[in-house]
Automatic annotation (TrEMBL):
This is Guanine deaminase. Pathway: Purine metabolism; guanine degradation; xanthine from guanine: step 1/1. Pfam families: Amidohydro_1 (PF01979). It comes from Aureobasidium pullulans EXF-150. It catalyses: guanine + H2O + H(+) = xanthine + NH4(+). It comes from the Eukaryota.
Length: 469
């Protein structure tokens, strides 16, 4: 069950344990915390050790907070920052898990283009987009970078749905004027630009200051865009200052194709750079097979990378060298890449990042291994940097927005029996675990049953029966 509170938030104090990343290697866990969130959704104060002070006393201690609402973690759980999905195709959600043994280029033709082309049907778009936003919220995703389709009306609908359900979103109308089948492509570079401008104008009407929704310029990937289209989108990005998202260096056949199609460019990365599409607001998904020169170019432009390990494994694209990317100073976040990736969960993606890093380590050595802390950092602070919101979301600090999830863990009964009446989560706590153990048990074993409630900018956007606010 999911209920939402569409009203403006009231002053609220969140009581109980909380955890968040304080650096790429460190998670701070406070066992008895109190976080005050003002009616504008911003964190006003954080107390790290309230001991057993009763809630009413805490309210009286903070001037102006006497009448604050209290939301308390009553069982074994903790507050955690909302997840940031830096790369997800909302339109492909119905195909999650359906990819067989395909690889990128045949997967696009077999599964993806037929589904995306059907978004002329607005009733279908409404149903799918409502579901994917509900589903990602239920997994704790408070910010998502969405690819929609080429269709203006359906893309605008996705923006409307994110706004009404309260999810922070970057919404991209997909541009593709060559190579895809006739039934699914932009007629020309000019129509691709006009359609993109129409989607930007729509967001300008529903959320003019981009409080929650931001349009994002979206050339699908180099092979599906003519040079004219890439150049025009680069110009549009420069004129509007809007962010850009695209795919890069995902699959070896794709890279060969780019080399054939753009012979005057030095590399895949150079294609985007020449078109003015490589800057500090560019999000490049995959980045599996980049050369050292390409990584240096990306770094010099301060462009960002969305690591999509589940998709890279499912489509046999390769294992991205995340340790190398991080060591070279590139900014990295996580992307589910639904439906190249099979899951809408960033927690699952973080686990996959760890497992893929183990496979890289089996070839390149132990230094490639990511830790739980690093994967959680990629899922929160790293993602926030990728989308340019690192001062607002991704952690708990005074002045940041309350984009958060309440994680709830179940305690095993004395006799070990399961109470079938309750919708128990998959993580069992025996009460001998340290807080770090609990965090790891959630990380490796948890799912959306453990996400009791979710807030964006202080607004409650998802709850389960486990939430007792
Ligand atoms: N994973 C993935 N790669 C792409 N490259 C171009 N389009 C796509 C897509 O939809 N998914
Ligand atoms: Zn993708």
């Amino acid at each position: 069950m999911s209920t939402t509170n569409g009203t403006a938030s009231e002053k609220t104090i969140y009581l109980g344990a909380f955890a968040h990343c304080t650096s790429q290697q460190e998670v701070e866990i406070c066992e008895a915390g109190a976080i005050g969130v003002d009616s504008d959704g911003k964190i006003a104060f954080i107390e790290r050790d309230i001991g057993d002070i009763p809630a009413y006393e805490l309210c009286e201690r903070q001037q102006g907070w006497e009448k604050a609402k209290i939301v308390e973690i009553k069982d074994q759980g903790f507050f955690f920052p909302g997840f940031i999905d830096t790369h997800i195709h909302a339109s492909q959600y119905p195909n999650s898990g359906i990819f067989g043994k395909s690889t990128l280029l045949d997967w696009l033709n077999t599964y993806t283009f037929p589904l995306e082309s059907s978004f002329t049907d607005l009733a279908k778009a409404q149903r799918i987009y409502a579901r994917v936003v509900n589903r990602t919220l239920s997994h704790g995703t408070t910010t998502a970078c969405y690819y929609a389709t080429v269709h203006v009306e359906a893309t605008n609908l996705l923006s409307d749905i994110c706004l009404s359900k309260g999810q922070r979103a970057f919404v991209g109308r997909v541009c593709m004027d060559q190579l895809s089948p006739d039934y699914y492509r932009d007629e020309s570079a000019e129509t691709a630009i006009q359609a993109t401008e129409a989607c930007i104008a729509h967001v300008g009407k529903i959320d003019p200051k981009h409080h929650l929704i931001t349009p994002i310029i979206t050339p699908r990937f180099a092979p599906s865009c003519s040079e004219g289209c890439l150049n025009a989108l680069g110009k549009l990005a420069q004129q509007t200052g809007l962010p850009i998202q695209t795919h890069i260096s995902e699959n070896k056949s794709e890279i060969e194709l780019v080399a054939e199609m753009f012979p005057s460019s030095k590399s895949y990365t150079d294609v985007y750079d020449k078109a003015g599409l490589l800057n500090a607001k560019t999000i490049l998904a995959h980045a599996v097979h980049l050369s050292p020169e390409e990584r240096a170019l990306i770094r010099s432009r301060d462009a960002k990378i969305s690591h999509c390990p589940a998709s890279n494994t499912a489509l046999t694209s390769g294992a991205a060298p995340v340790r190398t990317l991080l060591d070279e100073g590139l900014t990295v976040g996580l992307g589910t890449d639904v439906s190249g990736g099979y899951s809408p969960s960033i927690l699952e993606e973080a686990r996959q990042a760890i497992l893929v890093s183990r496979h890289v380590a089996m070839v390149d050595g132990d230094a490639a291994k990511l830790s739980t802390e690093e994967a959680l950092w990629l899922a929160t602070r790293g993602g926030a940097k990728v989308v340019g919101l690192e001062s607002r979301v991704g952690g708990f600090e005074v002045g940041m927005d309350w984009d958060a999830q309440m994680i709830s863990l179940d305690v095993v009964s004395e006799d070990g029996e399961m109470d079938e009446a309750e919708n128990k989560g998959p993580v069992d706590v025996f009460m001998w675990e340290s807080w770090s153990d609990r965090l790891n048990k959630w990380f490796y074993g948890g799912d959306d049953r453990n996400t009791a409630a979710v807030w964006v900018k202080g607004r409650l956007v998802h709850t389960t029966p486990k939430y007792r606010g």
